[in-house]
């Protein structure tokens, strides 16, 4: 009997848990359905947007009782993740608020919490989108216009704070200005006096800002044919234009206008007071930028007219294209499709605007938002989808960029050459080369011939030498790269009289016979040190390094893999021979002698030597600035090596920093467990205080090494530029030569590309190197860099 009772109770338990599971899965299904409905509203549909919004609002209202929190979270997520459909979601929130006032209030509260959190954590892009959404909620009668104006006033009051960087006040002013196209008309109608006062404060701020940083961020040094404006100046000019047009624009889709009768009856919410978090030194604000302009209406041959550079429509369209790129950057096919189905594509020259926005991002200084390859692959995808029009627009853009290249920033010339080489490689390297043939008669150091040569060098990496020879006309012969090959001086005519030749040949035989590293070292021992005559105790042995490295690279010259295998096998010997910085520089010089005609091989080998710690970053920097490398100094591969070296050093410091933090966290966790009596013998190995101390010492050594690397680079820049300027002044000639342009802008590039690292050492640089007694032309670059965050 008891057993039977137990059996039936077991059955009840099973039934209860099954029902619970069913309810759980039903809840998940409903939540997924809600998410799908909300995120997909506004996409192509057989019904009108208005009927879809009305239907969705009714569905959501019915589900509010059980799924209110989930619905709120999905909507808040859409605010920042789907900003291109902002007006759709503000309308939806307006309809929900009209049906359920408390729901509207809770949503606004959640959005305000998200805004405060974004401002506190430095997620400024999300914060800007939330501010814009709140502004549009005024149009939907969700938020009282006066309370939004109070929030704007609080943001603008940041400009009155003392001892803050300009980038802080810039961002808060920009957040307000970028929301005005959506809400200005409403504010003007309802709160004209207060709104005019706000505009007057913004105007006053814009007119007084310092703009020392602007030259460092310009793509072109010339304002012809298009002025290169700072972003706040440009947006303010566009807003003043909007004001002159009585706050009317033709670009924003406003679905809430169809529901005006319903929405205007709704009760509105007053925003709580929002005080921007106070400034602290750890906060990193978005950097200023210069607006890139490449086209105007005269460049568009037919069809819709391109909006003027100071029309608000230009800003709104560019902002929307930028949003599409941000939303879809991880998937080029989706991104291309989204761009080409732009909502008002028939009213604007869409292809021109897409190309301009993409190049503006590619050329953005200090760094583009995404990998350079993204822009190349996306442009190719766009050409595939619109073969009848996009290639022509892109060709026109390329011609315009080439024609203006003399005043283009060196960093942008480099990105332009990388993109163009990649693009050509996808189109059989076809181009109207004859149109550029005049560059073949120019000084090879001028931007046009330099650009063409670098394009061919990059294209050769994606193809092969003979293809380059066959691709360009014969008139380009002077710019065609040399065929890559290795030079082995110990096999050349007359090599017999050179010291080390006999040992070099013995070494070749030994390595081919698979000798051990120790046996190879025995052969090198007999070589005399040429430095012994000058120094009693030389710090390195140039002849041993020269012979061994020449032989090793000669034997591994078939491919990258062969070279890597040779370095791996004889790693110990290379470390012994190059145990001082002078020895490492000599090793790099020897590598250059062997592979001077193969830039890519040198880039890859230096990277390998750094990775295997055979050479130090400081040795690479000193080698690149050495007198032997002066003829190569303006070639792009030199700076590819330099930037890779800085990044390698940075990664090493970051890794050591992370290791120290992880070890401290483990130790703290172990101490807490021990205090609670929860220690387990099987717990993973716990670092001791001594281990952490040694790790911190390694970190400090790496940080000092990084600091020294930057000091070497900037000191050598100052030396060569000062020498050039002094020589020009002494000979009464113009200092602004092609060489000077490449070098001074490379100095600027080091500052910009590695700005986060360099800012750590800014006080040291200011006190030791960039003092008031150096030439103004050099000091000016440093001052522009400092102004980026000042």
Automatic annotation (TrEMBL):
MIF4G domain residues are 31-243
Q: Which InterPro entries match?
A: ARM-type_fold, CBP80, MIF4G-like_typ-1, MIF4G-like_typ-2, MIF4G-like_typ-3
Q: Spell out the SUPFAM superfamilies in the cross-references.
A: ARM repeat
- Main localization category: nucleus
Q: Give any GO molecular function from the UniProt entry.
A: RNA cap binding
| Cell location | Nucleus
| GO CC field | nuclear cap binding complex; nucleus
**What protein name does the entry list?**
Nuclear cap-binding protein subunit 1
The species is Magallana gigas
């Amino acid at each position: 009997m008891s057993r039977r009772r137990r059996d039936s109770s077991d059955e009840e338990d099973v039934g209860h848990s099954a029902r619970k599971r069913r309810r759980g899965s039903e809840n998940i299904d409903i939540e997924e359905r809600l998410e799908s409905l909300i995120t997909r509203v506004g996409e192509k549909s057989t019904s009108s947007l208005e009927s879809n919004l009305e239907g969705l609002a009714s569905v959501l209202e019915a589900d509010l009782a059980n799924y209110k929190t989930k619905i709120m979270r999905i909507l808040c997520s859409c605010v920042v993740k789907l900003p291109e459909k902002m007006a759709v979601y503000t309308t939806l929130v307006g309809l929900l608020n009209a049906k359920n006032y408390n729901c509207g209030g809770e949503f606004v509260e959640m959005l305000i919490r998200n805004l405060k959190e974004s401002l506190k954590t430095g997620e400024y892009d999300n914060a800007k989108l939330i501010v814009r959404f709140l502004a549009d909620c005024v149009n939907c009668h969700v938020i009282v216009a006066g309370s939004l104006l109070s929030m704007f006033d609080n943001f603008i009051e940041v400009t009155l704070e003392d001892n803050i960087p300009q980038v802080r006040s810039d961002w808060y002013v920009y957040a307000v200005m970028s929301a005005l196209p959506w809400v200005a008309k409403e504010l003007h109608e309802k709160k004209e006096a207060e709104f005019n006062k706000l505009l007057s404060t913004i105007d006053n701020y814009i007119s007084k800002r310092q703009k020392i940083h602007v030259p460092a961020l310009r793509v072109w040094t010339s304002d012809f044919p298009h002025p290169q404006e700072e972003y706040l100046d440009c947006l303010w000019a566009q807003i003043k234009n909007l004001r002159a047009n009585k706050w009317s624009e033709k670009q924003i889709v406003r679905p809430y206008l169809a529901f005006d009768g319903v929405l205007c009856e709704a009760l509105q919410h007053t925003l709580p007071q929002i005080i921007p978090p106070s400034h602290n030194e750890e906060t990193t604000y978005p950097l200023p930028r210069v607006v890139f302009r490449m086209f105007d209406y005269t460049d568009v041959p037919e069809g819709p007219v391109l909006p003027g550079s100071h029309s608000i429509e230009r800003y709104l369209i560019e902002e929307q294209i930028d949003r599409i790129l941000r939303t879809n950057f991880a998937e080029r096919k989706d991104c291309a499709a989204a761009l080409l189905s732009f909502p008002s594509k028939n009213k604007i020259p869409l292809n021109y605007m897409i190309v301009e926005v993409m190049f503006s991002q590619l050329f953005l200084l200090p760094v583009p938002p995404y990998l350079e390859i993204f822009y190349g692959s996306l442009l190719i995808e766009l050409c595939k989808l619109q073969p009848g029009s996009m290639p022509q627009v892109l060709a026109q853009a390329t011609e315009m960029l080439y024609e203006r290249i003399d005043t283009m920033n060196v960093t942008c010339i480099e990105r332009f050459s990388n993109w163009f080489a990649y693009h050509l490689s996808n189109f059989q390297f076809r181009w109207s080369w004859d149109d550029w043939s005049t560059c073949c008669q120019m000084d090879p150091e001028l931007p046009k011939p330099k650009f063409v040569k670098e394009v061919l060098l990059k294209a050769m990496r994606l193809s092969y030498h003979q293809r380059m020879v066959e691709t360009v006309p014969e008139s380009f012969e002077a710019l065609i790269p040399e065929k890559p090959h290795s030079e082995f001086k110990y096999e050349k005519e007359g090599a017999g009289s050179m010291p080390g030749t006999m040992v070099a040949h013995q070494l070749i035989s030994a390595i081919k016979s698979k000798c051990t590293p120790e046996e190879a070292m025995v052969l090198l021992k007999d070589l005399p040190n040429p430095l012994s005559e000058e120094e009693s105790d030389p710090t390195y042995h140039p002849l041993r390094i020269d012979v061994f490295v020449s032989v090793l690279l000669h034997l591994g010259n078939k491919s990258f893999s062969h070279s890597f295998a040779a370095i791996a096998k004889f790693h110990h010997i290379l470390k012994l021979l190059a145990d001082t910085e002078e020895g490492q520089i000599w090793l790099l010089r020897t590598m250059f002698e062997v592979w001077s005609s193969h830039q890519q091989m040198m880039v890859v080998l230096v990277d390998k030597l750094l990775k295997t710690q055979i050479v130090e970053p400081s040795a690479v920097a000193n080698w690149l600035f050495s007198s032997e490398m002066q003829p190569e100094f303006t070639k792009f591969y030199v700076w590819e090596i330099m930037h890779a070296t800085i990044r390698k050093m940075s990664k090493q410091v970051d890794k050591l920093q992370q290791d120290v933090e992880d070890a401290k966290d483990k130790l703290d966790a172990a101490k807490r467990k021990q205090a609670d009596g929860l220690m387990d013998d099987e717990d993973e190995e716990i670092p001791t205080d001594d281990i952490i101390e040694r790790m911190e010492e390694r970190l400090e050594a790496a940080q000092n090494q990084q600091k020294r690397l930057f000091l070497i680079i900037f000191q050598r820049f100052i030396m060569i530029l000062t020498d050039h300027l002094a020589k020009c002044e002494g000979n009464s000639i113009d200092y602004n030569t092609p060489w000077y342009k490449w070098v001074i802008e490379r100095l600027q590039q080091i500052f910009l590309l590695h700005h986060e690292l360099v800012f750590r050492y800014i006080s040291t640089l200011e006190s030791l190197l960039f003092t008031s007694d150096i030439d103004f032309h050099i000091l000016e670059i440093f001052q522009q860099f400092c102004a980026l965050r000042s």
